[in-house]
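Input record (Table S2, row 83):
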Amino acid sequence: MRITCPHCGQRGLEEFLYHGDATPQRPSDGGATPTVEWTDYVYLRDNKNFAHEELWYHSAGCHAWLRVTRDLSTHEIQDVRQA
Ligand SMILES: [Zn+2]
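Output record (zinc ion complex):
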């Protein structure tokens, strides 16, 4: 798999670190948020079988955080942009 970094161009997967699903929204009010909402945010993820957004870090390149839209059934990368 190759990722096209908006700064560096097309690079091999070994230059990037995967940091998971980019779609969960952090609870907004810190310590006042009920524990169940934090548990959902930190631990619960849906199993997806279609395109979804992921966070990737270009660790061996420009050190940019990227939002990558990837189809999980085919691994086709559909979009890459600055996070
Ligand atoms: Zn880069």
